[in-house]
Amino acid sequence: MAMFLLMVLSIQALVLSTHGQEAYDNLSEDFKKGVNLALQKLSTHSGVQHHFLFFRSITKSDINHGFDVRYIYHHFLLKPTHCPRGTTDSTACHFRNDRPPIDCAVCYKTFGGNIEAEPKPYVHCIHKPSLTEDMKVLRKEQCNIIGYGSGAPTLLATRGD
């Protein structure tokens, strides 16, 4: 009986660890770039000790402004793993359930599939329990500035999936 329980728990851990990579793989390239931008910023923060993986999207918005210009807004969660910060091969990294996820919002302009330096991409990530309503409002304002600066419709006025 103990062996069966151990086998079930091992299979469950494997399924949960591959879910993050599968969720990331299902994103379009434009949204993956934003997740990578957030992960890059997070990994340079001195207080972060664990390796994080994409967990799931909360809200996505993609405005095609024409002439190969897109405005991207992506609100998503990153979840810590048992791997240390700086891990390059995350295939063996399993999600931790004893730490809160990190709530991220990114918005940026792409041209030809590449993130543009101007307007500067906005990345805001914080542990989910610390996210306040004021921070949510600030995120929306900052992302709308990116779209308004170029005469584009607001990023948050469109419906994603």
TrEMBL record:
Stretch forming the signal peptide: 1-17
GO terms under cellular component: extracellular region
Entry-linked PANTHER family: RETINOIC ACID RECEPTOR RESPONDER PROTEIN 2
Keywords: Chemotaxis, Differentiation, Disulfide bond, Inflammatory response, Secreted, Signal
Keyword check for RNA-binding: no
Organism listed in the record: Mugilogobius chulae (yellowstripe goby)
Name of this chain's protein: Retinoic acid receptor responder protein 2
Subcellular location: Secreted
Record GO biological process: cell differentiation; chemotaxis; inflammatory response; regulation of lipid catabolic process
GO molecular function list: signaling receptor binding
UniProt cross-references to InterPro entries, sorted A to Z: Chemerin (IPR029562), Cystatin_sf (IPR046350)
Coiled-coil ranges from the UniProt annotation: none
